[in-house]
Design a protein that fits this description.
The structure holds 2 protein chains of 2 kinds. By secondary structure, chain A is mostly helical. Chain A has a single domain, classed as Fumarate reductase/succinate dehydrogenase, transmembrane subunit (3 helical TM bundles of succinate and fumarate reductases). Helix content of chain A is about 75%, strand content about 0%. In chain A, α2 (about 10-35) packs across α9 (about 190-220) and α8 (about 155-185) runs antiparallel to α9. In chain A, about 30% of the residues are buried. Chain B is an alpha+beta fold. Chain B has 2 domains: about 5-110, Beta-grasp domain (Ubiquitin-like (UB roll)), CATH 3.10.20.30; about 115-245, Fumarate Reductase Iron-sulfur Protein, Chain B, domain 2, CATH 1.10.1060. Chain B contains 8 helices and 7 strands, in the order ββαβββββααααααα. Chain B has helices spanning about 35-45, 115-125, 145-155, 165, 175-185, 195-205, 220, 230-245; strands spanning about 5-10, 20-25, 70, 75, 95-100, 110, 115. Chain B is elongated, with a radius of gyration of 20 Å. Classes of the chains: A mainly alpha, B alpha+beta. The interface between A and B is large, with 44 and 50 residues.
């Protein structure tokens, strides 16, 4: 069955839909967690520490966190691999373009591939910046995420990269959530408006919620 | 009306093609688009040139033979087949671009004619019902609920012209394949092959080199028969169900 799914264009889209929804669920939790930064350094840093001790004493220190990380890595890899393979198939299926060109589909739909690449690169930078601290500006402090976030958004490029990526995220979710519903066969005529509205609301809330953090740092609300 | 036509000319499958420009005069707004092309071809024949090859058959909008991407739209600006498109949709002095369906699974044979046998092979893979041949069966022997009959009929309207493939930026045949699957899978007559039909037809569709669905909705916009985009959702649902049920 796994082979049937992976070898079929419909099946590979299912992999994209499921992995996309897993990442979307994570992003909702992540965005809500991020907003704790507005309650001050103490609460935010405590929350970050709690993420490492979730499930104790059954789970050892950071076990839950690593479990989530593994699921996310699997989801990102599955999503990107199927996107790459499906895109290759799509481009092969339409090798010659029409001479008479017309603007097609919505902006969100047309930017799925580029938006996805931008998001992939952003994730790499984001992890190197705020998880490992490898490319962090201004001295990365382990266990003090509040200070690290303020560092990052005190640089112009940190803000630019983040805001651009979050706008790409909004567009990606707008088309992606609705598409996932269709791929999983959950769409229907009666449910279509509700699904489109949910996609728009999710896209808007996530983008606004994430961008609130750099805006908070820029306006001095978080410092 | 006097029109400037820019038509895709290609000698054969292996030749390089290009757009050629022609002027046609004396076009009436009551002519169909194909009659306008007939006018052009008559002139070309009189001039001793090779007429433009294009597919057509019933000219009633029901056979699915005519194709043509007109000004970037499959079947042109109206939601109908090219044969049912009339010249009143254009203005005197217009320049009209005419191109063949574009997809690697639909190779150009000549000029505007493409090879659509890939669709036939998708149908052969499962677009049929196992029914005894002979006299028509008693109509009341197999009751079909009205909503199911309507659903089946809506999808049965697909004439297999390939406009969905031509309009799709991925050259996908999802709307065609889903129309056929939904049409038969909802009916009791189609029930014995419900799972194998969707699995085999989707596999054949992939095999033919059609692209995948990115839900741009271009196919449903271009479809002269109004097959809805949700048809693809239905096919996905049937495919997932069949994958769970059938062990392969």
């Amino acid at each position: 069955m796994a082979r049937t799914v992976w070898n079929s264009s419909v099946g590979k889209k299912t992999v994209m839909a499921v992995s996309g929804l897993i990442m979307l669920l994570y992003l909702v939790v992540h965005m809500i967690g991020n907003l704790k930064i507005f309650f001050g350094a103490g609460e935010f840093n405590d929350y970050a520490h709690w993420l490492r001790v979730v499930g104790e004493p059954f789970m050892h220190y950071e076990w839950t966190l690593w479990l989530v990380r593994i699921v996310l890595v699997v989801a990102v890899v599955a999503h990107a691999t199927s996107a790459y393979q499906l895109s290759r198939r799509d481009i092969r299926a339409r090798p010659s373009k029409y001479v008479h060109k017309k603007p097609r589909a919505s902006y969100a739909t047309r930017t799925m591939r580029w938006g996805g690449i931008i998001l992939g690169l952003f994730i790499v930078w984001h992890v190197l910046d705020l998880t490992t601290g490898t490319v962090h500006a201004g001295g990365f402090q382990e266990g003090r995420p509040y200070q690290n976030v303020v560092d990052t958004f005190s640089t112009w490029y940190g803000n630019v990269i983040y805001v651009v990526a979050m706008l790409a995220l909004g567009l990606h979710i707008r088309h992606g959530f609705w598409s996932a519903a269709q791929t999983l066969g959950a769409g229907s005529r009666t449910r279509d408006r509700a699904l489109k509205a949910t996609a728009n609301i999710l896209a808007l809330l996530l983008t606004a919620g994430f961008i609130a953090v750099p805006v908070g740092v820029m306006t001095g609300l978080v410092s | 009306m006097k029109l400037t036509l820019r038509v895709w000319r290609q000698k054969n499958a292996d030749a390089e093609g290009a757009m050629s420009t022609y002027e046609v005069d004396g076009i009436s707004s009551d002519m169909s688009f194909l009659e306008m092309l007939d006018t052009l071809n008559e002139e070309l024949i009189l001039r001793g040139e090779d007429p433009v090859a294009f597919d057509h058959d019933c000219r009633e909008g029901i056979c699915g033979a005519c194709s043509l991407v007109i000004n970037g739209d499959a079947h042109g600006p109206e939601r109908t087949t090219t044969c049912q498109l009339h010249m009143r949709s254009f203005k005197d002095g217009d320049t009209i671009d005419i191109e063949p369906w574009r997809a690697s699974a639909f190779p150009v044979i000549k000029d505007l004619v493409v090879d659509r046998t890939a669709f036939d092979r998708i149908i052969q893979a499962g677009g049929y019902v196992t029914a005894p041949t002979g006299a028509a069966p008693e109509a009341h022997a197999t009751p079909v609920p009205k909503p199911d009959a309507d659903f089946a009929f809506e999808h049965a309207e697909c004439i297999g012209c390939g406009a969905c493939v031509a309009a799709c930026p991925n050259g996908a045949a999802m709307l065609f394949t889903s129309a056929k699957i939904n049409h038969l899978n909802v009916l009791p007559q189609g029930a014995p092959e419900r799972e194998t039909r969707v699995l085999d037809m989707v596999a054949q569709m992939d095999e033919e080199g059609f692209g995948g669905c990115t839900l741009t909705g271009e196919c449903a916009t271009a479809c002269p028969k109004g097959i809805p985009l949700m048809s693809i959702t239905g096919m996905n649902k049937e495919w997932l169900r069949a994958t769970r049920k059938v062990k392969r």
